[in-house]
Write a structure and sequence with these properties.
Layout lengths: L1 H17 L6 H19 L5 H20 L4 H7 L3 H4 L7 H32 L5
Helix pairs in contact: 1-2, 2-3, 2-6, 3-6
Length: about 130
């Protein structure tokens, strides 16, 4: 698990840095840095169940918002081709950026859920902890 968290801590920090040139860096930099912080804490064997819950709930709510947003993932799924999403790095249509952002949120959710499950498993091994 240590390698898993080192890898994702690094990837989330890089993702936060890349958001600097985004239209809304004030939103995405903290989102990715929160995921990096969670992974950093797991590297140090400090598992924070409340932090996982907060992150998963927040990221899922945000992903659901992007799913039903006017030019979001559902719009792309219903009206456009899958190849349009990855044919270039430039997000020249709103649904391209929204769909990619949902992908990032779902990666964050997956990492937090995995760490949360590991934290529960580790706490179950400690007598007197639930």
């Amino acid at each position: 698990m240590k390698i898993f968290n080192i890898l994702f801590c690094f990837l989330f920090v890089i993702s936060a840095i890349l958001q600097y040139n985004d239209d809304d860096p004030y939103l995405w930099i903290p989102i990715y840095l929160y995921g990096a912080w969670i992974c950093y804490m797991a590297i140090k064997n400090r598992y924070l169940p409340w932090a996982y819950a907060l992150g998963v709930i927040g990221y899922l709510c945000f992903a659901i918002y992007y799913l039903i947003f006017k030019h979001g993932v559902l719009d792309w799924f219903q009206h456009h081709h899958a190849g349009d999403l990855v044919q270039s790095m430039k997000a020249d249509k709103p649904w391209i950026e929204e769909t990619r952002e949902v992908g990032g949120l779902l990666i964050l959710v997956a990492v937090l859920v995995i760490d949360w499950l590991v934290a529960r498993k580790k706490s179950a091994k400690i007598p007197g902890k639930v």
